[in-house]
Amino acid sequence: MADLPELLAQPEVQIAILVVAATILLLLVLRIATGRKRGTAVLLVGPCNAGKTTLFYRLKDGTTALGTVASMQENDGYAQVRNDKGRVAGQLRILDLPGHPRLRSKMEQYLKDASAVVLVIDSADITPNKTEAAEDLFEVLTHPAIARRRVPVLLACNKADLETQAHSVDFCRRTIEKQLDAMRKTRQALGGDAGRALSALGKADKPLSLASLRSPISSASISAEKGEVGEVVSFLAKLL
Amino acid sequence: MLDFVAAFERGGAVLWMLQFTTLRHSPLEAINALIRGCLLEERLGENVFTFVPKSGAPQALKWTFHNGLGLVFVAVYQKTLSLLYVDELLTSVKDEFVGVYKPGQRGYKQFDDNGGATSGQAKKGSTAASGNGKASGDVDADDDTAVGRKPMSNGAAGHTSEGSAGGEDGDTSAAEDGTRAFDVSKLPKGVAARGRGARGRPGTAPTGGKTDTSSKKKEDTAPKKKARNWNSLGLPSGKMDAPTRIDYTEEGDGPNGMSDGVSASASATEDEGVPAAVSRMDVEEEDYDDDELDEEQLNNGAAPGRGGAAVAAPAKKGLLASFVSSLAMNVVGKSALSRTDVEPALAEMKRKLMERNVAEEIAEQVCDSVGRGLEGQRLASFTGVASFVRSAFEEALSGILNKRAVDVLMEINKSQVRGKPYVIVFCGVNGVGKSTNLAKIAYWLGGHGKKVMIAACDTFRAGAVEQLKTHCAKLRVPLYERGYEKDPAKVAFEAIRQAERDGQHVVLVDTAGRMQDNQPLMRALSNLIAVNNPNLVLFVGEALVGNDAVDQLTKFNKALSDLAPTAAVAAAGGGPSARGGTDGAALARRHGGVIDGIVLTKFDTIDDKVGAALSMVYTSGAPVMFVGCGQTYVDLKKLNVKSVVKSLLK
C-alpha cells in the first residue's frame, strides 16, 4: 500500500483528479446556466373567447382573415417583432394555448419553458369571467419555473374597441388582483396544491398586490380584432 | 336548407366559409357551441349536434375531420329538415379542400372557384381549373389532379342530388325563394351559388343573368346525368373500399394501380405495402409486441437501448423479415395511421381501463373517441403505435377529469356577503358514506372559519338522526332535526330559515340513501331540491362502484330534473339568479344536469382501481370535488388528476 501523498505525487493520479474536478465544475456551470435559461416561447393564455387566437394571428400574420372559433389545440408560430422605429428587431416563438377548461392541463407543460406570458382577458366581459382569468393567472404565477425565473407577465385587456362596454385596464387589473387574493386564501385552505409555489404570491398575511410580486406584471389595453396591439409588440420587443 | 359550410383548423382559425342563408346570429356561434359541447367533450360517437340559438330555430350540425392535417369541416342546417346529402357533401368538400390546403395559408378564396367546379358545369370547369392552377402555383401538376378530381366530386354531388331530390321535393318547393328557377334539389343550388360567386370574381366568364345560368344548368343536367351515374358508381365504391383495399395490399395481392381515386389512402397503402412484403398479419402483431417492449424499455429510462430491445424481441421469434419491416416502420415513421393500425392498441387500452374498474360503456366510448381522433394522424419517427395511442389516451383522460370545480369557499364568501346561508345537498345510493363525508366537509368548513349547520333530512333510516347528533356533538356544530316520519323537504326548508335567523354561513343537508330506480324516493328528493333550491347538489358515490356508476348518475340526474314539480322547474330554468351565485349557476348550466359535483368516497379501499372517477365524471359532466379517503374527519382530499390518469394507464 502506497501512502496517500506518494500516490498524489504520481502524475497520472494528478491528471485523473484534475479531470474529475474539471468535469464537476463543468457540470455545475452547466446546471446553473440551464437553471437561469430563459424560456423559448411566449405563451398566450386566458379564458375562452378572450381573443387569444385572434391575437396570435394578428401578431403572426398581421391579419385575422375570416375570424376564429374555439381552439381545440395549441397554435404555434413565429412572430416578427418590430421595434418602435418599425424595423424588424427579431422573431419570437408564440404559443397560443386553448382556453377551454378541458385543455388547461396542457398549460402546465408549456409553462416550463415560457419566456413570457400574455394573459388575454376580455375587458368587456371581465366580471363573469374573472374567476377563470384569475385561475389562469394563479396557475401561471405559482408554477415553480415561472416563480424561479421571474418570467414577465402581461395582462392584455382585449376588445378595447368595444368602447362603451369595455372596462378600463385599471379596473380589470384590480378585479383580477382581488380575485387572485381571494383565491390564494381558499387554495391554501384546500391544501391540495402540492408543488405549487404559493410563496410567489407574496406573504399570506398581507393583501396581495400584483405590483409587488416576483414576476413583473404589466398591463395593456389592446384590440386584436382591430389591430391595436402596439403594447403587446413593445412588450415582446423588450424580451429580445 | 343548408345554412353554411365551413372549414377550420383545430387550432381555431377559420379557413373557408360559405353561407347560403342569412342568420340572425353569427355562424361562428354554432361552431363554437359544437366545439365546446361535443368535440372537446370526447363525445365523437354522436354524429349530429344540435345548436339552439337565442333567437330562431334549432340548427343541426354535422362534421367530419381530417386528422392528418388537423382540419374540421362542418355543415349547418335547420334541424327540422333532414338533409340526406350532408354527409356526402362534407366528404366531397373535404376531398376537394385537402387538395388546395397549405399549412399556414389562411384565405381560400380560390376554393370557391374550385367548389364551383364541383357543380359540374363543364364549361366553367376549365376556367376554374386554370384559376385553381394559378392560385396554387404549379399549373401542370395541379391541372391534372384537378381534372382527375372534378368529375369524381361531380359524381358525388350529382349522386346526392338525385338521391335527395325525391325525398325533398316537398320542402324544396316550399322553401324555394323564387329568384332561382332550379328544379334540382338544394345541394346543386347551393353549389351553383358557389359557382356564381366564383364566376363573378375572376371576371373571365360572362356575367349573364340568372336565367342564363339556370338554363345552362338545365342543359347540363341532362348529359350530366349519365356522367354522374358513371362516376357515382366509381366514387362511393372507391371510398367504401378504401379500408378493405388496404387489407388487400397488406396481404400482398392488392394491385396499387387500382387505387386511382382517393389519393391519400392510396399513398398510405403504398407506403405500407412496400416494407411489409412478408405477411402483414405477422407484421402487425410483431410491431405491436415490439412496441410494448420498447415502451417498457423507455419507461425504465433506457431510451438508447431501444435498438437493442427491438433486435432482441423478433430474434427470439426468429422472424428476421418481419423485424426489418417493423423496424423500418418504427424508424421512418408511418405516413398515416388507419383504424386497423390502432385497433389492437385500442383494444388493449380498453381492457386496461376496464381492469381499472371503468364502466364498460364508458371505456368503449372513450376508446372509440380517441380512435377517431387518431385516424389519419402521422406517427413520428421512433414512436411505436402503442406509445402514441397511450399519449393520446393520457391527454383525453386528463381532459375529461380536469373540470373546473366550484370553489366552494369562495362561493360561501359570496353568499355570506348577501347574508344568505349557502346550502349544500348530499344525495346518493344507500351506504356510500353520505353522512360520514358530510361530517368531514363540515369539519373542513369549520376549520376555515365558516359557521356550519347540519340538517338531518334522512327521516327514514333508523339511527340516522342519532348518527348526525354524535357527529355534531363532536364537531360542535348545531344540528337541525325534526325526528323521523317527517317530509324531508319541509325539514330542509325549516332548517334553512333557522340558519338564516342564526346567521349560519353554510347548511349541509343530509338526505336518505336511495336506489336510483326507486321512483317515489327519487321524487321526494327532486321535490326537496326544487323547494329549497340549494346552491350545490353533491352526488356521493363510492369508488368501489363499477358498471353501476353510469346508471346511478344518469338516473339521478334524469330523475332530479324530470320528476321535479313543474313550477319549480320553471323557476330554476327561468332566471340564473334562482340558483345561488352567478358562477355556480353558470356551472350548473354548463353541463346541463342537476348534479353540480361528485364526492368520491372510500377512495382508500380501491388501490389502483380508480376507474369509478372516470365513469362518474364522464357520465355526469360534473367535477369530482372531494375525495373521501379514510374514517377520520381529516381524511378529505382533492382529486389528483395526474395520479388518477397515471394509475388508469399503468
Automatic annotation (TrEMBL), chain A:
The keyword Transport applies. It comes from the Eukaryota. Signal peptide: none annotated. One of its GO terms (cellular component) is Golgi apparatus. InterPro entries: P-loop_NTPase, Small_GTP-bd, Small_GTPase_ARF, SRP_receptor_beta_su. The keyword Nucleotide-binding applies. One of its GO terms (molecular function) is GTPase activity. GO terms for biological process: Golgi to plasma membrane protein transport; intracellular protein transport; protein localization to Golgi apparatus. It holds the Pfam family SRPRB. Its main location: endoplasmic reticulum. It is a single-pass membrane protein. Coiled coil: none annotated. It is found in: Endoplasmic reticulum membrane. The chain crosses the membrane at residues 13-33. Keywords: Endoplasmic reticulum, ER-Golgi transport, GTP-binding, Lipoprotein, Membrane, Myristate, Nucleotide-binding, Receptor, Transmembrane, Transmembrane helix, Transport. Belongs to the SRP receptor beta subunit family. This is Signal recognition particle receptor subunit beta.
UniProtKB/TrEMBL annotation, chain B:
It comes from the Eukaryota. One of its GO terms (cellular component) is signal recognition particle receptor complex. Residues 213-223 have a biased composition (Basic and acidic residues). Residues 283-294 have a biased composition (Acidic residues). GO terms for molecular function: GTP binding; GTPase activity; signal recognition particle binding. Belongs to the GTP-binding SRP family. This is SRP54-type proteins GTP-binding domain-containing protein. The lineage of its organism: Eukaryota, Viridiplantae, Chlorophyta, core chlorophytes, Chlorophyceae.
